[in-house]
Design goal:
Helices cover 81% and strands 0% of the residues. The protein is an all-alpha fold. The model has no long low-confidence stretch (mean pLDDT 95).
């Protein structure tokens, strides 16, 4: 069981399900079915688990070259390629079928997420530093899936959730790459911190995306979708994250990148959770 949890990248899958659930909650009408939310969470989690397993199958050789990933089930030999393929296909199909039966639009968004993650982002990691931008698109899809599952359509506010998650991913993944430069070089991944030897372009992009998150994260409140509670929390959280980005951009050290990474994994749940709580306060 633990092997398949590792293969599923359980923490990332949980994050995807959480953001899909919050997208559902924010879009849900006054009267909604709890069972529909559970199916949305289950479908998104199955999709995330399957795509993670298939991604690791495609990157088995590269994972074996990196200290941070060589202990994963496939490169360590604890699970066979056939088992990983079977699990990945079964989980992905389960997620796609569940979400499609729940709401066709949600299923279509899920299919786009799976295809773009496996067949665009994954191969581009070996070819261009732009892969992070491409990968941030499927990574930001779960709130749209959740919103679509609740309403059967996408509004401007749904795309705003997408935008927050999209922008957040860029400093988050740049921080991971900056913390593991030698690993990424060994694997042949052309992430920006790997090809940007002096770190100037990486620093500029970290600052750009952290700065952009400040006004974008406040838009739900300034646009009337959320209230004062969310506005205050988002302002404090986004400025704190920006401050961490400024420190990282100046230092350009592995330690600073790790600090930014930990800041990012605190920031996103904080923003999405306060946005969900704000709906409770407003109602």
């Amino acid at each position: 069981m633990n092997l398949y949890l590792e293969l599923s990248k359980a923490r990332l899958t949980t994050l995807a399900a959480m953001t899909a659930g919050i997208g559902f909650w924010l879009a849900a009408p006054a009267e909604w079915l709890f069972g529909k939310l559970l199916l949305t969470l289950a479908g998104t989690a199955a999709l995330g688990a399957g795509s993670a397993a298939l991604n690791q199958l495609l990157e088995k050789e590269a994972d074996g070259r990196m200290n941070r990933t060589k202990g994963r089930p496939l490169p360590s030999g604890r699970i066979s390629e056939g088992q990983a393929l079977t699990f990945g296909v079964a989980a992905s199909c389960t997620g796609l079928i569940t979400l499609t039966l729940l709401e066709p639009l949600a299923g279509g968004l899920a299919a786009f997420t799976l295809i773009s993650y496996l067949f665009l982002y994954t191969p581009l990691k070996r070819r261009t530093a732009l892969c992070t931008l491409v990968g941030a698109v499927p990574g930001a899809m779960p709130p749209l899936i959740g919103w679509a599952a609740a309403r059967g359509e996408l509004s401007l506010w749904a795309w705003l959730l997408f935008g927050i998650l999209f922008l957040w991913q860029l400093p988050h993944f740049l921080a991971i790459a900056g913390s593991h430069l030698e690993d990424y070089r060994a694997a042949g991944f052309k992430m920006l911190p790997v090809v940007d030897l002096e770190g100037r372009a990486t620093s500029r992009q970290i600052l750009l995306y952290c700065l952009a998150l400040v006004p974008v994260s406040l838009l739900p409140a300034t646009g009337g979708f959320a209230g004062g509670f969310y506005f205050g929390c988002a302002l404090v959280g986004s400025l704190a994250f920006l401050g961490t980005g400024v420190v990282t951009a100046r230092a350009r050290s592995a330690r600073a990148y790790k600090r930014l990474f930990f800041g990012s994994i605190l920031y996103l749940p904080f923003i999405f959770t306060t946005l969900a709580l704000d709906k409770v306060i407003l109602t």
